[in-house]
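User: My instructor asked us to take a sequence, write out its structure as tokens, and then describe one feature of it. I'm not sure where to start. Here is the sequence I was given:
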Amino acid sequence: MAPIAVGHRIVHGGTRFTEAALIDDDVIATIEELAPLAPLHNPVNLTGVRVARKAFPEVPQVAVFDTAFHRTLPPEAYTYAVPREWGVRGFGFHGTSCGYVSRRAAAFLRRDLTDLNLIVLHLGNGASATAISGGRSIDTSMGMTPLEGLVMGTRSGDIDPALTGYLARVNGLDAQQVEHALTHCSGLLALAGTRDMREVRARDDDTARIALDIYTRRIRKYVGAYYALLGRVDAIGFTGGVGEHDAATRAESLTGLERLGITVDPALNRADAAGERLISPAGAEVSVLVIPTDEEREIARQAHALVSSIVVPPTSHASVQGDVPA
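Assistant: Let's start with the prediction itself. The structure tokens for your sequence are:
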């Protein structure tokens, strides 16, 4: 069966792209213009686009943007308290993952997504927390770039903005050097000497322990803050490589939140378990879930929906819709 579309993950869509888009030369040019906002991602994403266009010249190519899910952020969430003439704002990322996980969480709990308040913790080499109300993103830890927020594999997450000026004055570093260090040489790598959470967990030394304390404390801070913003939390969903596989990180990230109705059952929170599962005790006020993300399926779903809304697929392709459920 010939493909009816090729879907591409594009990390940054800026304010131009708030939903999936058919790729043409103008779209590619705009994605290139947005590369300074995601220099690690957009250029590489476009390499895949160009290869696919050559390989499948007659097949529609669809760009699915990580930032698009967060188009519902209110101004008070995406606006920075800086001079307006700078023209900067927050965008948020991991949108394809958040969209998939929020729908799967609603299905798992047999709840209507429009009546569900959820915190998604996407924990991997890149990590983010997102507050979702009724299927709409209302706040997220990543900002103008994927550097803000949680501690990550090599990214610092939240820091004092004055750090750049301080390092320029004291260490003689320019802005590019500081940005490189915050993106490539920070996070777990700076704290523990490795970006691999499995290696940090395998150690029993003070450096590893403080790294883990910093990592999970940052997550706990965001969970508490998002609980306050949402007012009511029905579920917390862990996803991503660390979120799906590291039971200790899941437990430690929520320790101390019992008075908010958030608790983890040690027997359910097993490292050897797999698939979608509940890890909070029966009857807990807040359901804590592990939902393995499937960004590829989400990209396929959005690409299929867009192409189907524009052209009617041939009869031979009718089964594709059943292969990519909403």
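For the description part of your assignment, you could build on this observation: Strands lie at 6-10, 21-22, 61-65, 117-123, 127-133, 136-140, 235-239, 277-278, 287-290. Try explaining in your own words what that tells you about the chain.
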